[in-house]
């Protein structure tokens, strides 16, 4: 018998060591938001976006998307724990921008796994969060679950003047101008009509409604598909003009 074979045989005869995993914990959105590593990585993600000339993608965006996701999930009748998991996914959805804008849903899902696993979240609860984060962008994703669909509508509806980070108006690009033009944006689930409506008030001094559609058309299509996953129709109301 060769030396290597003997040692393999000896190892195989040893009793298998049992792997003991720490019992999973109920992780809350409050804990996620207070986690210092998550705070620093969300800050870092926004720094990358700011350096690239993008609109705000930090704690403000994460918080708003998380709140709108909760509202949609509650309105469509999701269970309380599912609502909380959806909010966690929403809070972390853009964290991958800390690596690179390109493929940020995938890098974000990987980061979310590490962070939430470290916090003790059960793998069964982690799984839907990873799918929701990994599918939130129109180029590489689709609404694969109710949680993901709610997150997508919440994310795409956060268009607002307060997101513009470029302090020099003369150098605004179309994204800055369109965001700057939006004075009010509101998502409403209209149960009686089985409709999810996004209402935007656009100040046409800064951008036209056509410019809004130029950059948001693909996002609105994704919102329509997401509303369908939730069993609703999607409607858009821009300056009082209703589009379905
Ligand atoms: Fe994103
Ligand atoms: Fe986002």
Written account of the structure:
It is a single chain. By secondary structure, the protein is of the alpha+beta class. It has a single domain (25-243), classed as Orthogonal Bundle (Hypothetical protein af1432). The protein contains 10 helices and 4 strands; from the N terminus they run αααααααααββαββ. The chain has helices at residues 3-13, 29-34, 36-51, 59-75, 80-92, 104-118, 123-134, 146-157, 174-181, 209-229; strands at residues 182-190, 195-202, 233-238, 241-243. It has a 4-stranded mixed β-sheet. A hairpin with a 2-residue loop joins β3 (233-238) and β4. α7 (123-134) crosses α8 (146-157). The mean pLDDT is 91.
Any idea what the shape is? globular
Largest sheet: 4 strands, mixed
Extract low-pLDDT stretches: none
Portion in helices: 40-55%
Q: Do you know the CATH topology?
A: Hypothetical protein af1432
Work out the helix count: 10
CATH architecture: Orthogonal Bundle
Radius of gyration from CA coordinates: 22 Å
The distinct ligands, each listed once, are: fe (ii) ion
- What percent strand? 5-15%
- The mean pLDDT is 91
Largest sheet, spatial ordering of strands: 1-2-3-4
> How many E-type strands?
4
End-to-end CA span: 76 Å
Number of domains: 1
Could you spell the SSE succession in H and E letters? Answer: HHHHHHHHHEEHEE
- Structure classification: alpha+beta
In the CATH hierarchy, what is the class? Mainly Alpha
What is this structure, in a nutshell?
This protein is an alpha+beta fold. It contains 10 helices and 4 strands, in the order αααααααααββαββ. It has helices at 3-13, 29-34, 36-51, 59-75, 80-92, 104-118, 123-134, 146-157, 174-181, 209-229, and strands at residues 182-190, 195-202, 233-238, 241-243.
